[in-house]
Amino acid sequence: MLEEGLPTIPKGDYPLIDADPHFSRVIRYFRFSDIGIWAAITASAPLLVGLMDYNKYTQISRGVQGTLKGFLVAARQRRSMFGPAPSLFLGAVGGFLIAYQRSSYRFLGYSENAREQAQDLEELSKRAKAGLPIYGESALTPELQKIAASYSRLAVFKFSVFPLFNFVNHPYHGVDTSKYFK
Questions:
Q1: Cβ distance 9 to 123 under 8 Å?
Q2: What are phi and psi of 126, to 5 degrees?
Q3: pLDDT at 62
Q4: CA 105, CA 29: separation in Å to the nearest integer?
Q5: End-to-end CA distance of the chain, in Å?
Q6: Are 148 and 156 in contact (CB under 8 A)?
Q7: CA separation (Å) from 120 to 38, 83, 134, 176, 181?
Q8: % of the chain at pLDDT higher than 70
Q9: What span, in angstroms and rounded, lies between the C-alpha atoms of 167 and 179?
Q10: Cβ atoms of residues 23 and 156 within 8 Å
Q11: Tens of pLDDT along 50-69?
Q12: Measured on CA atoms in the order 15, 20, 22, 23, is the torsion positive or negative?
C-alpha cells in the first residue's frame, strides 16, 4: 500500500483534501480572512511590545515614586530592547505561521473547506486531463519522497515548536486520486 509507514491523519469534521499539501498550494489557497489575520498580527506586534515596555517602566518608576531617583531610573531604562522594526518582523513571521496553519487545517478537514474542495478538484482535474502528474514531478527517489512526506505530514500541528513545510512533490497525500480522472 502506498501510505504504509506514514503517520495517520486524525479524522476531522470535514472531508480531507490533502494530508500533506505542498507549501505553494497552501499559500495559493489562503483566504482573505487568513491574510487579514496575518496583517492584524503584524500590525499589532509593535503595539503590544510598546504596551509591555510602558507597563514595565511604569512599574519601575512606581517603586520609588515621587523621587528624583525614580524618575531617572525610569527614563534611563525606557529604551526598549525591541524597537518597531524587530517587533514588526516577529509579528509578520508569527502572523504568517498562523495564516499558514489555518489554511492547512482546511486541507486536513479540521475547519470548513467547501471552497478549497472545489478549487482542488478543478486544479488537479486539469492536471490529470493534461496528462501531468497530479502532485507534480520530483527529482527525489521514491524512498526520499516517502521520508520527506513522513517528516512534513503532521508538522502543521507542531508549528509552535518547529515550523516545517512540505517543499517536496510526492504521491503520499492520503486521498483517492481517481476522482481527478473522471
A1: no
A2: -60, -40
A3: 54
A4: 11
A5: 23
A6: no
A7: 23, 42, 11, 13, 13
A8: 82
A9: 24
A10: no
A11: 777 666 555 554 555 555 55
A12: positive
